[in-house]
Amino acid sequence: MDKVVIITGGSRGIGAETALLAAREGYRICINYHSDEKAAHSVLEQVRALGAQAIAVRADVSSEDEVIALFHHVDAELGRVTALVNNAGTVAHKSRVDEMSEFRILNILKTNVLGPILCAKHAVLRMSPKHGGQGGSIVNVSSVASRLGSPGEYVDYAASKGALDTFTLGLSKEVAGEGIRVNAVRPGYIFTDFHALSGDPDRVSKLESGIPMARGGRPDEVAEAIIWLLSDKASYATGTFLDLGGGR
């Protein structure tokens, strides 16, 4: 069976590393991005240099119309999707709950909860035998924050990842009999430009001493776990969470 993967938020960090590893594993790849076309095309070039058939598609995954267009694009250019990595996510500046605006909270919930649910919906519409599919694999990129709550930092982000964990569990049971596996990875402090979104680009370096392994993680370390969960090597794993937090 041809392996076709959609990686949301594939233009940077964990998403970009996952795309590079997927290329080495023989996937056809769709790199989805929201706004940074230059970064997406840079990853696209690297992926194609590794010999993979790949495309980059702009879409806001929190809008169903755009998700529908994204999947149609993949149908036409790469074939029916067999793997989905729900990696697109956002965080806002460090803040207490009593300082948060409705706009901020809605933005985080739309991107981190609604987006993955919509993408999973349209993946299942292609993977499930009920819809003519042959099964597939979904990996949601959650966060150690879902277990820790991120007090004084971004409780709204942690809550969105808690919702994603529960969605992972529920969907995994719903489609387990249809040859679709649904799992999640929960990264901790990883060296990516994601932390710049919270207003503190050096956050990981500052917090390393509090991590049991005494270092931040690398995006490729998370990508390895994602690709493993997508693969047949994880054939009996569904509803599973892989914590990649260096012991946090």
From TrEMBL:
One of its GO terms (molecular function) is 3-oxoacyl-[acyl-carrier-protein] reductase (NADPH) activity. It comes from the Bacteria. SUPFAM superfamilies: NAD(P)-binding Rossmann-fold domains. The keyword Nucleotide-binding does not apply. PROSITE patterns: ADH_SHORT. It catalyses: a (3R)-hydroxyacyl-[ACP] + NADP(+) = a 3-oxoacyl-[ACP] + NADPH + H(+). Pfam families: adh_short_C2. Keywords: NADP, Oxidoreductase. Belongs to the short-chain dehydrogenases/reductases (SDR) family. PANTHER family: NADPH-DEPENDENT ALDEHYDE REDUCTASE-LIKE PROTEIN, CHLOROPLASTIC-RELATED, RE15974P. Catalyzes the NADPH-dependent reduction of beta-ketoacyl-ACP substrates to beta-hydroxyacyl-ACP products, the first reductive step in the elongation cycle of fatty acid biosynthesis. This is 3-oxoacyl-[acyl-carrier-protein] reductase FabG. It comes from Pseudomonas grimontii.
